[in-house]
């Protein structure tokens, strides 16, 4: 039986995630606290791993993961982490990060939807533990946990074979309904990956030929049942989701059973 094995939220977009035992669904379909804060450059663009590899060098921890009011930030060449309250000390955090990146930046908050990459499908991204294990095996020296940190999905499913989550999307004009515990989801499409998975999550060092290897392996391991209409290329992994507003306030919890309901138009 498929079940929910991990929940990871990323309070500050592009920084480290934190595992939680449960997560509340917002009316937008996003998980409460996920990508709630984001860093922006003077042009109003995200300061993220796609555009600024230096961000991988920062280590973030959240002493109160259920509340996420506090961030503990370890900056290279500093002896101890710096701790900031995200409600009352945001200016200090902004100044610290501006000094680290070498340009003026701002930090914004969106407690209703966060700052997802796909605003049409802001629900949690889904992958299976077996998939992460299989994909890690394509790259000698890369552990499962390192691959997990490269892919940065929110929900991890256990009790299934590799790429089981590819059953959670169908044709481009259809959604796949599934349940996690008592929370209803719609699977939308396989997530298009960016440059971030090619880099080591701590050092930003690029794994040689990562994208080429990934594409070749992904194509040959794609389950026969998968609809290929989403795959204009094979650099896709994990599933983007939407949640109906009726699920607002419900909780996802570790151990929740997962079941596919049907395709819907």
TrEMBL record:
- In what residue span(s) does the MOSC domain sit? 90-261
Q: Which Pfam families does the record associate with it?
A: MOSC, MOSC_N
Q: Name one GO molecular function term.
A: molybdenum ion binding
Mind telling me which InterPro entries this protein's record contains?
MoCF_Sase_C (IPR005302), MOCOS_middle (IPR005303), Pyrv_Knase-like_insert_dom_sf (IPR011037)
Query: What domain of life does the native source organism fall in?
Result: Bacteria
Q: Which SUPFAM superfamilies match?
A: MOSC N-terminal domain-like, PK beta-barrel domain-like
Q: What is this protein called?
A: Molybdenum cofactor biosysynthesis protein
Organism field: Nostoc piscinale CENA21
Give the lineage: Bacteria, Bacillati, Cyanobacteriota, Cyanophyceae, Nostocales
């Amino acid at each position: 039986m498929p079940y929910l094995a991990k929940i990871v939220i990323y309070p500050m977009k592009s920084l480290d995630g934190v595992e939680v035992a449960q997560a509340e669904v917002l009316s937008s379909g996003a998980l409460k606290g996920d990508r709630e804060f984001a860093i922006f450059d003077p042009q109003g663009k995200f300061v993220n791993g796609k555009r600024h590899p230096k961000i991988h060098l920062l280590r973030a921890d959240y002493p109160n993961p259920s509340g996420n009011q506090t961030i503990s930030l370890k900056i290279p060449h500093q002896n101890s982490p710096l701790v900031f309250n995200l409600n009352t000390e945001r200016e200090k955090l902004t100044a610290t990060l501006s000094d680290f990146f070498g340009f003026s930046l701002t930090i914004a908050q969106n407690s209703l939807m966060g700052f997802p990459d796909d605003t049409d499908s802001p629900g949690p991204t889904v992958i299976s533990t077996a998939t992460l294990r299989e994909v890690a095996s394509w790259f000698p020296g890369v552990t499962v946990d390192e691959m997990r940190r490269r892919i940065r999905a929110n929900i991890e499913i256990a009790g299934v074979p590799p790429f089981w989550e590819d059953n959670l999307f169908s044709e481009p004009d259809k959604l796949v309904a599934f349940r996690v515990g008592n929370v209803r989801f719609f699977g939308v499409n396989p997530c298009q990956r960016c440059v971030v998975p090619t880099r080591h999550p701590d050092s930003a060092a690029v794994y040689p030929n990562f994208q080429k290897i990934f594409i070749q392996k992904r194509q040959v391991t794609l389950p026969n049942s998968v609809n290929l209409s989403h795959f204009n290329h094979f650099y896709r992994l994990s599933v983007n989701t939407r949640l109906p507003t009726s699920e607002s306030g419900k909780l996802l919890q570790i151990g929740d059973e997962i079941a596919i309901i049907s395709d819907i138009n």
